[in-house]
UniProtKB/TrEMBL annotation, chains A, B:
It comes from Cellulomonas composti. It is found in: Cytoplasm. SUPFAM superfamilies: DmpA/ArgJ-like (SSF56266). One of its GO terms (cellular component) is cytoplasm. Keywords: Acyltransferase, Amino-acid biosynthesis, Arginine biosynthesis, Autocatalytic cleavage, Cytoplasm, Multifunctional enzyme, Transferase. Pfam families: ArgJ (PF01960). It catalyses: L-glutamate + acetyl-CoA = N-acetyl-L-glutamate + CoA + H(+); N(2)-acetyl-L-ornithine + L-glutamate = N-acetyl-L-glutamate + L-ornithine. Catalyzes two activities which are involved in the cyclic version of arginine biosynthesis: the synthesis of N-acetylglutamate from glutamate and acetyl-CoA as the acetyl donor, and of ornithine by transacetylation between N(2)-acetylornithine and glutamate. Coiled coil: none annotated. This is Arginine biosynthesis bifunctional protein ArgJ. Gene3D superfamilies: ArgJ beta chain, C-terminal domain, L-amino peptidase D-ALA esterase/amidase.
Amino acid sequence: MTITAQDTAQLSPGVTAPLGFRASGVTAGLKASGRPDLALVVNDGPLSVGAAVFTTNRVVGHPVTWSRQVVADGVVNAVVLNSGGANVCTGPEGFLDTHRTAEKVGEALGVSPGDVVVGSTGLIGERLPIETLLSGVDLATNALSTTGGPAAAVAIMTTDTVPKTADVTVDGDFGTWRVGGMAKGAGMLAPGLATMLCVITTDAVVDAATADAALRAATRQTFDRIDSDGCMSTSDTVVLLASGASGATPDPEGFAAMVTAVAAQLARQLVADAEGAMHDIAITVTGAQTQDGALAVARAISRSNLFKAAIYGNDPNWGRILASVGTVPEHVAAFEPELLDVSVNGVMVCRAGGAHEPRSLVDLASQREVHVLLDLHAGTEVVTLWTNDLTHAYVTENSEYST
Amino acid sequence: MTITAQDTAQLSPGVTAPLGFRASGVTAGLKASGRPDLALVVNDGPLSVGAAVFTTNRVVGHPVTWSRQVVADGVVNAVVLNSGGANVCTGPEGFLDTHRTAEKVGEALGVSPGDVVVGSTGLIGERLPIETLLSGVDLATNALSTTGGPAAAVAIMTTDTVPKTADVTVDGDFGTWRVGGMAKGAGMLAPGLATMLCVITTDAVVDAATADAALRAATRQTFDRIDSDGCMSTSDTVVLLASGASGATPDPEGFAAMVTAVAAQLARQLVADAEGAMHDIAITVTGAQTQDGALAVARAISRSNLFKAAIYGNDPNWGRILASVGTVPEHVAAFEPELLDVSVNGVMVCRAGGAHEPRSLVDLASQREVHVLLDLHAGTEVVTLWTNDLTHAYVTENSEYST
C-alpha cells in the first residue's frame, strides 16, 4: 500500500481530491470586507453517506441544531457553509434562517433539504442577512466544480490567514481511494472539538456506521488534541461525506487511519494559524498511568496563561509547567511531584522535580515549533496535545474583533 | 455593635492593628532591586492560637510543606515571610533552607521552631541565598514594632504595585476587639486559594477550632472567589493568628464575619492590583440551582481569554460570555440556553439567549470596575466572582518575568 500526502505548504485540492465531489466558494456579500464568504460541497455519489461530530458546548448555533438532525439518518448530499456570521443566539428567527438556507440548497441541487448540512461561522448574536445568503446559494451552485475545493476552503475563512486543505491517496489491495478535507478556525480552538468548521470527503465505499466510527476515532486523536486558547466554540462541526465513487472498499481500520491522517494535517494547520500565535507548542506527556490522565495533565499546561506568556517571551519556565501540572487532581492523574522530569526542545531543564540543565541552553527563538516533554513516571501511556503561546497579537486580535 | 473599617485607599496598620502583635519589614538582600524582602509577624499573646489554609496544588513549595506541620497543633508564635524566591522545586536542600529559617526565627524570638510558619514567594526552581536570609532574620527581629504592619506588607510584595493591608475594629457586647491583615499577590491568582501570602491577626479570645473554622469560612467566600488568571500557585498560604490580648471573646459567627470582612478587603485589593489588568470584573451569577453550579458558571466565564480580551477592548461581547457558560456540564449547573439573560454595567445586552439592548449603550471605558450579571433562571442561588481583563500589559509582564 502506497500513501501519498500533499505537502501542506501547497494548497491541496481538499474536498475535491476524492472522486464524486464538486465544490465552490463565492462572495455572497455577507462580509463587509467583500471577501468570499459562502462555500458549497456536493456529494454526487453514487453513495450519499454522511457522518458528523459537533461541539459539546450547551450553547450552540442554529446550524448545529439543524445539522444534528440532518446526519441522524447517515445520509448527507451537500454541505453549505458561510462565514460572516455564526447564527448563534439569534432566536427562533435564526433557526428559520438556517432552515431556509438548507431549503434553498435542496431546491438548487434537487435534493431533500433534510440531507443538507449547514455550517456558519463569525460573530455570535447577530442575524444573518438571509436574502443575501440565499442569493449566494445560486452563485455557489453555478460555480460548483470538481476542482472547487481550494475556493471552498477560502470562502470559510474568518480570522484565518491561510486556507487549510489536505488529502491522501491510498493505492491499496482493494483499489485506489482518496480522503480530502478542508477546515477553518483560528481562535476558540478547544476540546470537544477544536475546529469551527471542517468538511472531509472520501470516494471510498463505506457505510454510515463505518464513516461515523472513523470520524469519531479521527477527531478524538486530532481536533480534540489541539487547544489553542481554551475557548470552546458554539459552532464546531466536522462532517465526513462518502461518495463511493472510487469503487474501492477499504477495511474499516485502514479507512479510519486515513481519515485520521487528513484530520491530523488539518488540525496541525489550524494550530499553525492560531490567532496571533508566535509558537506552536507540542506538549507530550509520557509515563502516565492512563490516556485520560495524560490528556488532563497536557490540557492543564495548555491552559496556563503564565506558561503560554513565558513561551512567547522565549522563556522555558518549567516552574510554571509544574505549577499547572499540580492542579490536576490525584484521582485524575497519578504522579509524584518529586519524580517529574521536564524537557523543552530537548533540554532537560527539570529532573526529579528540581532544576537540572540550565534554561539558557534552550533555544526557543529560532523556530516556531516548541516541544515540551513531561515524564510523569507513573505508567506507560503517552499523549501529545498542541497549543499556542499567549501573545500581544492574540490580545490585540481578540480585543478588537467585534468593535 | 459598631464596626469601623479603614478606607482601603489609606494604608491600614494591617497585622499590627490588633493588640498583642509586633511586625517588621526589612531588606535582607534577596531581591536584586534592593527593595524590602523579609517580613516578620510575632504574636506576643497571651494566646498563641494559629490556623492556616494552603494551596490545593499538588506541587507545593517547601514552606507550605513545613507550615502545614506547624499549624497542625493550632499553636503559632510567629510568621516569617520572604519575597525574592518561592523555594519551590528546589530539592531536599530547599526544605532544609525552610527548616533553618524557622530555627533561626525560633532562636531569635525564644520560641519553638515548630511554632514558626514560613512563607516564601518569588520565582520557582531556584534556591534562596540562605545565609542572606538568615542574616535578614536578625534585622527583622531588631525592627519588630507594634506599628510595623505596613512595613511588613511592603516587604512581601513581588510584582505587586501597592502593599495590601486592612483591619476592622468591633466594639461589641463582649468588649472591643480587632482583626487586621496583609496580603500580597498580583498574579497566579486562582481558586483553591487566590492569594500567594496573607497573614490575618486578631486580639479576640478564640480557640484553635474557632480560628480554623472562621478562616476556612472566610477564604471560601473571599480568596476562593477571585480568579485573576486561572493559574493556581504552589505557595498560597493564609495564616490567622489570635493573641487574645483584647480580653474580648466574640461569638464564633461574629468572629467569622469579621475575619471574612478583612479577607474580603484584602481580596478586593489583590484584584485591583492584578498583573497588567485594566478592568476589575465582578461576575455575578443569579438564578442558579446550587451555589456550586453558580460558582462553576462564574469560573467558566472568568477563564475565557476571549471574554477577558473583549473587556480589555471595552467590548461587552455577551456572545463570548454565553459560549463560555455553555461549556459547563449539565450535571454541574442546570440552565436552558434560551433562558439566559446577561447585563453588563446595568445594560441587558442579552435577553432569553438572544440580543436585546444595543451593546453601544454599555460604558466600559470610563471606569475600572465592570459588573457582569448573568441570570440562569434555574433557581435562587447567587455567587459573585472577581476576575480581571486580559491585557497587553499582562502578556508583557508574564513573558518577561524570569528572563
